[in-house]
Amino acid sequence: MEKIVHFEVNGVTVSGRAEAGWCLLRVLRVELKLKGAKEGCGVGECGACTVIVDGAAVNSCLYPAFEVEGKRVTTIEGLASSDGSLHPIQQAFVDKGAVQCGYCTPGMVLSAKALLDRVPDPTEDQIRTALAGNICRCTGYAQILEAVRSVSGEAKP
Amino acid sequence: MQLDYHRPRTIEEALALLGEVEGAMPVAGATDVWVNLRAKKIAPTALVSLREVAELAGLRREGTTLVIGAATPHGVVEDCQEIAAEFPALHRACSSVGSRQVRNVGTVGGNLCNAAPSADSAVPLLLYDAECVLRSRTGTRRLPVADFFKAPGRSALAAGELLTEIRMELPGPRTWSGYWKHTRRKAMELPLLGVGALVALAEDGETVAKARIALGVAAPVPIRAGDAEAALVGQRLTRETVEAAAKIAADGAQVRDSWRGKAWYRREMIRVLIPRVLGEAGAFGNES
Question: Taking 80 as the threshold, does the pLDDT of residue A154 lie above it?
């Protein structure tokens, strides 16, 4: 079964080809050429494929493509401004040295954004819980947590 | 993979599809189904998604009964302060499933229908004497959660049936309950053992009127430790009486070796964790 799914990505209405057995990650990367989300495991355990759908962080590798119909999706490509300036969370990751190989970074940033959009001033526990589904093999997480702490408690765009 | 994917909007539509489409299976959050599909552990020819069926999702109260729509994501339970206060064991369990990404889509009903012996939500639902409501095109039936798990990976759902709701009564006064998910790491992990306990004191404020002890990964299905419960009822609620009951529960558990943990360790931790769960729930030191 194949159809065209219509949804919004980073504020723009798009349509993409999808087959019933495809996941959202494939639609984003292959049909829409949005390569920021990564396939780290394909089974929803590493979080490298994390995107935000209707305000909620989800593993796009497990999100059936047909379910995205009519939804609002935010990918990492949607965070920086049109003039190229980074979103505060992205800037914090840069400033705190929270990016090494960068593979986990889009998912980490989006998990953090999904949290901060709901809970602008999270506790340490809330930050850790929000990022618990995102694996990083490089940094040991300390700089990532520091980056998210540094933008907690501030109003964000 | 050759697959059809349907998105009904009502329970009737969903049941009609399940009844009429060859090889169809229901799916909600897909966090288990999709993984099993890709691993070729299951091979449905059609998926009937329940995500657009509004009647199936959400929390509501009917008098003193909590009703959880089967397609309610764990994250909704996690974010519900009332459930945290009134059904703390269930709140803890649902908040511990997978990751936030998984909890945003994976559902309480799906957790039950996947019927893993490790299902986190099952243990608290046993504590709270929860009931499953199953609907087919020919009618509705209710099953206690205890009867919903038949074997590892097999629930009591008949072909063409949908789990629509999980219902439980608000615990009465003088009731304490908790759930401990015993894991090797802090997140994104199945339990190697799940321990739940609930006690309710009689009006004298001393005697145990009701006891529930439920275990996950201590048998092929989530179970209650009936002998241990019986040992507590009528006793004063003290660490000693609870520890004695915990030993009965531990001795009677059908634990096994698995790669997550050895049988002897699971048995030992049942004994240790039952008193700990009740202690953390505030059950001790409440004698009037």
Answer: no
